[in-house]
């Protein structure tokens, strides 16, 4: 006889696990990413273009209240807060991921999250009429919380509803919409559209529209079947959700694969961040996402965008036309991320990560040389432009989209929310740190700042090459077995047992067997 939940040969369920892109699956991805990820990108760059007009509004409001002009130091402080409160809010949002997705579900969390965005949009859009700059700073915190939740929950949701052969492409869709959000903010921020003295409140307030659309449409789509079955224990609802997403009735193989996952982690319960950090069986997964998230944010992407305007001006681009060049860089970012959606399933995650960080590493090294020689060698300024473009391409195909995708793939259902909470927190802390430190680095080191980013990219490449496995076209359980060997957790292939030695309260060692045993 076979115990319930016994493991089948993976080849038997390969066909069932593979799925086509149904209209419903595509719509869920589009509405989730447009209503959430898009706004993360939009709010990253929305305040760049109208900055002079917003600072003038701060000064004018202060003068009307006090009768004296604002001190330049105080104005700099207020603007620094306006910029930095966004990543700080992102950190707060990441810390809310674990309790919210476990209690409200993935879809439920996205719906609740829209309230943050709509509230912030109304406050920012009416700030000039209300003659208060404080609500802009408050709204940036609120939008940060929204982005912190969205940047983690959307990849988790899309990763869980996708068949394994589409999981990579679906996992990059959130990053694609982040880049589209950046591009749309850059286009709307042109001085001829909304980046002017009258248009900036509208520019800030537009962020509420995608949330409103998501709030109206997303309730009609299914919740994550894995959440319904593994966390709510409702197989009937999970089956119905899967049938709708796959477009056919026979979803037994995927339900079976979820049961195996449930069987293998039943004794652990849901991981908290503390238990995740101390659990030997997930050690390398946790280290990997921390390294990749640090590499993603500390590889200098903010610095390249910061330098881009200056680099193009030194190549002879007119100061008034630099804004159009910035838009063109945003467009390259979108096109290359879109390319990554189509090639991730054929080339795999590892290749894109290594190629992406490799391009960033080389372009940072060459950019250091080009920036230092551009005053003496005339064509070096054009080489700088090439470096910026190559860097953007590298980040768009690998460094930006793949780390969030791998958090979904390297963790099972019980540990995934805590893993996203850790990965998301590292992402936003590093984002905040770079924003805080880079201006000082740039003042002290100048162009040599990029050598530090080059070294970080190189270290990340070495780690990925040695540690991170290929996860393309594998089930969550298959990936778990690959990482179990790395964690030196004993596996017996014949019975496909998953064993671990786990310390129980009191210090004694308890052997757990997560087995599908045949008798």
From TrEMBL:
It is a multi-pass membrane protein. GO terms for biological process: D-glucose import; dehydroascorbic acid transport; fructose import across plasma membrane. The chain crosses the membrane at residues 21-42, 77-98, 110-130, 136-158, 170-194, 200-221, 286-308, 324-344, 351-373, 379-406, 418-441, 447-468. Pfam families: Sugar_tr. CDD domains: MFS_GLUT_Class2. Residues 29-472 form the Major facilitator superfamily (MFS) profile domain. Its main location: membrane. It comes from the Eukaryota. InterPro entries: GLUT, MFS_dom, MFS_sugar_transport-like, MFS_trans_sf, Sugar/inositol_transpt, Sugar_transporter_CS. One of its GO terms (molecular function) is D-glucose transmembrane transporter activity. It is found in: Cell membrane, Sarcolemma; Cell membrane. Keywords: Cell membrane, Membrane, Sugar transport, Transmembrane, Transmembrane helix, Transport. Signal peptide: none annotated. Gene3D superfamilies: MFS general substrate transporter like domains. It catalyses: D-fructose(out) = D-fructose(in). NCBIfam families: SP. Belongs to the major facilitator superfamily. Sugar transporter (TC 2.A.1.1) family. Glucose transporter subfamily. This is Solute carrier family 2, facilitated glucose transporter member 5.
């Amino acid at each position: 006889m076979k115990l319930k939940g016994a493991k089948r040969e993976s080849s038997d369920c390969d066909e069932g696990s593979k799925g086509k892109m149904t209209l419903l699956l595509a719509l869920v991805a589009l509405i989730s990413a447009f209503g959430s990820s898009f706004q993360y990108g939009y709010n990253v760059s929305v305040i760049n273009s109208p900055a002079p007009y917003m600072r003038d509004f701060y000064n004018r409001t202060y003068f009307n209240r006090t009768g004296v002009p604002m001190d330049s130091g105080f104005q700099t402080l207020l603007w620094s807060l306006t910029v930095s409160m966004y990543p700080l809010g992102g950190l707060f949002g990441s810390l809310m991921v674990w309790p919210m997705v476990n209690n409200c579900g993935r879809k439920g969390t996205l719906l609740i999250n829209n309230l943050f965005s709509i509230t912030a949009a109304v406050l920012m859009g009416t700030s000039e009429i209300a003659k208060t700059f404080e609500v802009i700073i408050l709204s940036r915190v609120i939008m940060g919380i929204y982005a912190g939740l969205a940047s983690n929950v959307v990849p988790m949701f899309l990763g869980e509803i996708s068949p394994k052969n589409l999981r990579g492409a679906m996992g990059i869709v959130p990053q694609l919409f982040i880049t589209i959000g950046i591009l749309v903010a850059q286009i709307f921020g042109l001085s001829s559209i909304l980046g002017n003295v009258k248009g900036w409140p509208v520019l800030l307030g537009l962020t509420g529209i995608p949330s409103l659309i998501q709030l109206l449409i997303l309730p009609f789509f299914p919740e994550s079947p894995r959440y319904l079955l593994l966390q709510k224990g409702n197989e009937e609802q999970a089956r119905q959700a899967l049938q709708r997403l796959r477009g056919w009735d026979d979803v037994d193989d995927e339900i079976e694969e979820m049961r195996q996952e449930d069987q293998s982690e039943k004794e652990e319960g849901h991981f908290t961040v503390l238990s995740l950090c101390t659990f030997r069986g997930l050690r390398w997964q946790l280290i990997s996402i921390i390294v990749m998230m640090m590499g993603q944010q500390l590889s200098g992407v903010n610095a390249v965008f910061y330098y881009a305007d200056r680099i193009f001006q030194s190549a002879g681009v007119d100061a008034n036309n630099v804004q159009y060049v910035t838009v063109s860089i945003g467009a390259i970012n979108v096109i290359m991320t879109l390319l990554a959606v189509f090639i991730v399933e054929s080339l795999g995650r590892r290749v894109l990560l290594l190629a992406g960080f490799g391009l960033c590493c080389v372009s940072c090294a060459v950019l250091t040389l080009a920036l230092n020689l551009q005053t003496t060698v005339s064509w070096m300024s054009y080489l700088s432009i090439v470096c910026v473009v190559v860097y953007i391409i590298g980040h768009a195909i690998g460094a930006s989209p793949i780390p969030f995708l791998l958090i979904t793939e390297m963790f099972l259902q019980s540990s995934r929310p805590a893993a996203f909470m850790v990965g998301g927190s590292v992402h936003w802390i590093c984002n905040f740190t770079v924003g805080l430190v880079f201006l000082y680095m740039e003042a002290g080191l100048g162009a040599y700042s990029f050598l530090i980013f080059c070294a970080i990219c190189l270290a990340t490449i070495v780690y990925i090459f040695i540690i991170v496995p290929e996860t393309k076209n594998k089930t969550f359980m298959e990936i778990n077995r690959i990482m179990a060997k790395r964690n030196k957790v004993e596996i017996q292939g014949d019975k496909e047992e998953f064993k671990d030695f786990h310390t129980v309260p009191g210090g004694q060692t308890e052997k757990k067997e997560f087995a599908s045993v045949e008798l």
